[in-house]
Amino acid sequence: KFLGVLQESSYRLWKMVDALLLLAKIPEETDNSVACPPGPVIGHVLQDQSHDINENNARVRVDRLPAIYMSEQHVYQLFSNLISNAIRYRRPDQTPQIYIGYDVKKAAYFVKDNGIGIPQRFQPEIFKIFARFGKHPHSTGIGLAHVKKIVDEAGGTIWVRSRLRNGSTFFFTLPAEP
Q1: Among 104, 113, 110, 98, which Cα is nearest to 165's?
Q2: Residue 44's beta-bridge partner residues?
Q3: If residue 44 lies in a helix (H) or strand (E), which one and from where to where?
């Protein structure tokens, strides 16, 4: 039993260190000079997360999205974090529904889910490193800080609209061109 606890703790530490290393590399890997069509990148994210999607019977809808001026790697990391959170923080009594789109009026991309939602009092903190809402065993508290740093480095903004037990919508804007 003690070895199992030790193994689980070392795994969580490894995941945290790995996430911190990725976070530290963002400024040096930022390339906002080339347009990246997000559709195919999101397709790769969905393929890579197909086990979790299928295991949770998640339904994912992706609209046609305008090009994003950032590296394909950062587009992948951004959507990967938001999609995995939408699955991870699902309501146990509902099939996860994830909608990825673009709001023309706000000029903002979004990832919307029907998950557990985030209480208003936690929302100002969720983009800070090591901020955690809920008790998920695989959460490092770095994912949303990573997403925010990617968006910030690209010159954009990110915010969330959420209500407890009513899901969350993460919006982010990015410059139209470099």
Answers
A1: 113
A2: none
A3: helix 38-48
Reduced to 3 states (helix: H, G, I; strand: E, B; else coil), residue 119 is coil
β-strand partners of 101? 110
Burial of 152 (0-12, 13-18, 19+ CB in 10 A): middle
Phi and psi dihedrals of 60, rounded to 5? Answer: -125, 130
Q: 10 Å Cβ neighbour count for 52? A: 14
Please give the chain's pLDDT, 178 residues, in tens. Answer: 777 767 776 766 665 566 556 656 655 555 667 889 999 999 999 999 999 999 999 999 999 999 999 888 889 999 999 999 999 999 989 999 999 999 999 999 999 999 999 989 888 899 988 776 656 555 567 889 889 989 998 889 999 999 998 999 999 999 877 6
What DSSP letter does each residue of 75-120 carry, written as one string? HHHHHHHHHHHHHHT--TTS--EEEEEEETTTTEEEEEE-SS---G
